[in-house]
Specification:
Number of strands: 16
Order of helices and strands: EEEHHHHEEHEEHEEEEHEHEHEHHEHEH
CATH superfamily of the largest domain: Enolase-like C-terminal domain
Distance between the termini: 23 Å
CATH architecture of the largest domain: Alpha-Beta Barrel
Shape: globular
Bound molecules: 2-phosphoglycolic acid, zinc ion
CATH topology of the largest domain: TIM Barrel
Number of helices: 13
Length: about 400
């Protein structure tokens, strides 16, 4: 009995306190749920998030209960592609504006969980049955955002994320390393008299005098911990400070060449390796030029590619990216998410599965990252509970391989 018997939607709150959706799909005795996250520094080509004028999700709840639920009644949850194609055609718009990418991704992922439950297999095993692709690693590296800025911390660093990137295949150990660096960084900030609060992704947030300052502090914390294999990463989310043809950072304007030179100096001075969205979301050739100028960089597309298979293929063909951020709610169905990952891997681009800045306690992304051998899992600072559950789920899956 794999046919859908009921779909429910309800309003919950995300980590920013904003309304979001919890979707529950039932197929007889089997049941799956998904709590939908929400971005703040969104790419303009992302799936549309359906919201009321006051930011609520009443319209999205209504779209699920009055339109999606009756249309999907009896649909087989184990046939993910057919189910997602039905959702896409029911919506009928290019960016899922009518029923909402938030409603669609909720139903799509809740259905996948219901399918695993109905088939009495683990979610990882079920995901693997949906597609096969060349894994990047046995277990993902953790991309841990310890200093928040940009749209996730008003008044803080202009760079949105300052990350450490773990190397070990032992996820429990990787998580301990991240927690240790986070603690030591807190001690360093305190010793310097830097008053830090927490940004949207749980990392420290404080005002800075230069682009370099947070990288210097993070580098110092990493050296103090003396953990081999840790690298530094950043998400510039550069569309958020690009305006009228220039990048505006801490009262100064940079053209592409000047910003590129500054990124290269961050590599030389602080050892920055991983760099997401260094330029605005249409600047594919600028990504490629930066990689040529400093081949040590691993450049990552997020707003550039928005989990869209065609955008990833185009960016890869132009040698603009070596890795890509995968966010299921950016594209709006699980099938399209997996398709984006497949296209990335076929073009030798690594996948980094990612949370959103407005998160829930859902840990689905950890299963996706593990199931397809993703290069990385990016889920914020481990001290924030809605982030930590993702890392802990990865520890659980990787400890219990029999379970997969
Ligand atoms: P968002 O940011 O979830 O606010 O869009 C995350 C990111 O840019 O990686
Ligand atoms: Zn990003």
């Amino acid at each position: 009995m794999n046919g859908i018997t009921a779909i429910h939607a309800e309003r919950i709150r995300d980590s920013r306190g904003k309304a979001t959706l919890r979707i529950i799909v039932e197929a007889g005795d089997a049941r799956g749920a998904f709590d939908v996250p929400s971005g703040a520094s969104t790419g303009s080509r992302e799936a549309h998030e359906l919201r009321d004028d006051d930011g609520g999700v009443t319209r999205a709840v209504h779209a699920v209960e009055s339109e999606i639920a009756p249309a999907l009644s009896g649909t087989d949850v184990t046939k993910q592609r057919a189910l997602d194609e039905l959702l896409i055609s029911l919506d009928g718009t290019p960016r899922k504006e009518r029923l909402g990418g938030n409603a669609l991704i909720g139903v799509s992922i809740a259905a996948a969980r219901a399918a695993a439950s109905s088939l009495h297999i683990s979610l990882v095993a079920h995901l693997r049955s949906l597609a096969s692709m060349m894994p990047s690693r046995e277990t993902p590296r953790l991309f841990v955002n310890l200093i928040n800025g940009g749209k996730h911390a008003e008044g803080g660093s202009p760079i949105q994320e300052h990350q450490i990137v773990t190397e070990t295949d032992n996820i429990a150990q990787a998580l301990q390393q991240a927690e240790q660096v986070e603690r030591v960084l807190g001690d360093i900030l305190e010793a310097r008299g830097i008053l830090a609060r927490r940004g949207d992704e749980g990392g420290y947030a404080f005002s800075v005098n230069s682009i370099d300052e947070p990288f210097a502090l993070l580098g110092e914390a990493v050296r103090t911990c003396n953990i081999p294999g840790l690298s530094l990463g950043a998400d510039a989310a550069a569309s958020s400070f690009f305006n009228d043809g220039a990048y505006h950072v801490l009262g100064e304007s940079y053209d592409t060449a000047a910003l590129s030179a500054h990124y290269r100096s961050l590599h030389e001075t602080h050892g920055l390796i991983f760099l997401e969205d260094p330029f605005h979301e249409d600047a594919v050739p600028d990504f490629a030029a930066l990689k040529t100028a400093q081949p040590a960089f691993i450049l990552i597309g997020d707003d550039l590619t928005t989990t869209n298979a065609e955008s990833i293929r185009a960016a890869a063909k132009q040698h603009a990216i070596q890795a890509v951020i995968i966010k299921p709610n950016q594209i709006g169905t699980l099938t399209e998410t997996i398709e984006a990952m497949k296209v990335a891997r076929e073009n030798s681009v690594h996948c980094i599965v990612s949370h959103r800045s407005g998160e829930t306690h859902d840990d689905f992304i950890a299963d996706v990252a593990y199931a397809f051998g993703a290069y990385g899992l990016k889920a914020g600072a481990p001290s924030a509970p809605e982030r930590k559950v993702k890392y802990e789920r990865l520890v659980e899956i990787s400890h219990d391989r029999a379970h997969t």
